[in-house]
Structure formats: structure tokens, C-alpha cells
């Protein structure tokens, strides 16, 4: 059941809180270090991908927050999103002007990762964030500052609850 868990990332503490909506247990705190700035849940794989921009690492977690592995890329990573075909996770690195297309179903023994020289650490073969696709004209909010990525934050909230990234598809 994909609605069982909810996830909150804190860039300040370097942690992700995993909230079990089915139980009354306190949230599980997953220490990642760095700055988990983007969370992406993949329902087909029952995985949460946490993008650490500061360290340039993609952490792949089981839906309950258990570490599956980590993919070391480059510092400066930005947000991630699932490609429309559901087969790739797209991770942008604005500081390097790069876009990574990672196979969403690949694992620690991935021939694709090996071919590109990606490294993995952590336990393998273990078995989550929210993506919303919408069409909206946000011109009045960003016309004065054109860009490809926009951050939405709730003022006064230390844990980024209700925050997100808008990715401009059509300028």
C-alpha cells in the first residue's frame, strides 16, 4: 500500500523522517548526512530516492526507510523526477550543467551503473516522496525571474513540509 508511509526531508539535519500512517509509532529518523533536498517515491519499485545535493549522492531506500544503496555522482545535484515512461529517474546538476538519467529498475549489480562508473554502498536487494504532474500558468509568480527550476517554500517552517520544486517544462 503506497499510502502507508509519508516522508519528510530536512536539509538542516541531514535526515529523512519516515512516518508510518498505519501505526502510532513515532517517525523513523533516517540519517543520511549532507542535504537531502529532493525526495522521489517510485511506486513500481516501492523505493524512495533521496537526492543529496551537497554530497552529490542518490540514496535509494526501501519504503520503510531502510537503506538499499547509494549512487555517488557529483556535488551540486538538484531535484529529481521520474521520466514519463517510468523507466528512468532524471536528476539535474545545475552547477555542472548536467542531467543524469538513471535506470529506475536497476540495482547494485547494474551493468548500466558499471558502464558509467557509478559506485554503490549499502545493503542490496531490499525492497518513499510524492510527485505531482500538473499544468498551470505560473507566469504572474515568475515572469520577472525566468528560470528552469523554482523552489516553493512555506515561510517559518524548518522542515520543508509543504515545499517543492517546480520544473518549467514550457518557458
Structural class: mainly beta
Global mean pLDDT = 76
Strand order in the sheet with the most strands: 4-5-6-7-11
Q: What overall form do the CA principal axes indicate?
A: globular
In this structure, how is the largest beta sheet organized? Answer: 5 strands, antiparallel
Q: Count the DSSP helices.
A: 2
Question: How many strands?
Answer: 13
The proportion of residues in beta strands is 35-45%
What would your notes on this structure say?
This protein is mainly beta and 171 residues long. It is built from two helices and 13 strands; from the N terminus they run E-E-E-E-E-E-E-E-E-E-H-E-H-E-E. The protein has helices spanning 111-116, 139-142; strands at 5-10, 15-20, 28-31, 36-42, 47-52, 57-62, 67-72, 80-82, 88-93, 98-103, 120-121, 149-152, 164-167. A hairpin with a 4-residue loop joins strand 4 (36-42) and strand 5 (47-52). The longest helix is centred in the middle third of the chain and has 6 residues, at 111-116.
Task: Chart the SSEs and their pairings.
Blueprint lengths: L4 E6 L4 E6 L7 E4 L4 E7 L4 E6 L4 E6 L4 E6 L7 E3 L5 E6 L4 E6 L7 H6 L3 E2 L17 H4 L6 E4 L11 E4 L4
Antiparallel strand pairs: 1-2, 2-3, 4-5, 5-6, 6-7, 7-11, 8-9, 9-10, 12-13
Compact description:
The chain is built from two helices and 13 strands; from the N terminus they run ββββββββββαβαββ. The protein is mainly beta.
